[in-house]
Amino acid sequence: MNGSRRTSFVLFWCVLGCAACGGARPGPARTLLLPSASAEQESAFEDVARRAFTVLSEGRPAALLLDDDGLRALLLPEAASSAALVRANSELAMRIDPDAQSTLAAAHYAGVCIQHARVMPPGAGFGLRAPGFTFDRMLVVGAEAGGGRVAAWVEGTFVLTDQGFFAIALQRLESPRRDHADLDLAPCDFRFGLGSPRGVVVSVPASY
């Protein structure tokens, strides 16, 4: 990792630490590329996966989204307006069945599978102001007290910022399922907490 990227990521985790100690946590201000160190990669993905598991179990998935200030900071003006419009029309994607919510609430976070990870150049796709590392899907997994596992896909447009991964938009929240078939079948760009292979990159361009 070059000096500027390492400094950015160290500052990111320092801010998270201050927030955990009760300090105010500023909103995301810029995008980041994924660090090369595997431990830092795992920290970034585990952070968003744990947040996703918590907010889904509490029925508040909107907490994964960038707020309006974050959209304006990370996206070009026209793209930020478009993202805000998509968000306003995505109420169905944000609903969680109460029974499904209780299923997650009775489990504890166990791991994550990340799909469709890549580096997005500025202006391309959803209109980032600067290059950013993004992914489109994560299978969030919980472990139940009896030893079973429950999992659900969270689909949207997630981008790595100086405050961690946040969603520009959410497209679909799958109802959690016990013994989800994709726990064994889904290919993962990054996989943590679910056994081997661990942290394997399969779709990030070689130029990254």
Quick overview of this protein structure:
With 208 residues, the chain is an alpha+beta fold.
Describe this structure in words.
The chain is α+β, with helices and mostly antiparallel strands and 208 residues long. Helix content is 33%, strand content 25%. The chain has six helices and seven strands. Strands 1, 2, 3, 4, 5, 6 and 7 form a seven-stranded antiparallel beta sheet that branches. A hairpin with a 5-residue loop joins strand 3 (132-143) and strand 4. Helix 3 runs antiparallel to helix 4 (77-88). The chain is globular, with a radius of gyration of 17 Å. It starts with a helix and ends in a 16-residue tail after the last strand. Mean pLDDT is 83; it is low at 7-22 and 197-208.
Element layout with pairings:
Blueprint: H1 3-20, H2 38-57, H3 68-74, H4 77-88, H5 98-105, E1 108-115, E2 118-120, E3 132-143, E4 149-161, E5 164-173, E6 177-178, H6 182-185, E7 190-192
Antiparallel strand pairs: 1-3, 1-7, 2-3, 3-4, 4-5, 4-6
Low-pLDDT segments: 7-22, 197-208
SSE arrangement, N to C: HHHHHEEEEEEHE
| Largest sheet properties | 7 strands, antiparallel
What's the total helix number? 6
- Shape descriptor reads globular
Q: Averaging pLDDT over every residue, what do you get?
A: 83
Helicity range of the residues? Answer: 25-40%
C-alpha-based Rg, rounded: 17 Å
Share in β-strands: 15-25%
Number of strands: 7
Query: Strand pairing plus helix content: what structural class?
Result: alpha+beta
| Amino- and carboxy-terminal Cα gap | 11 Å
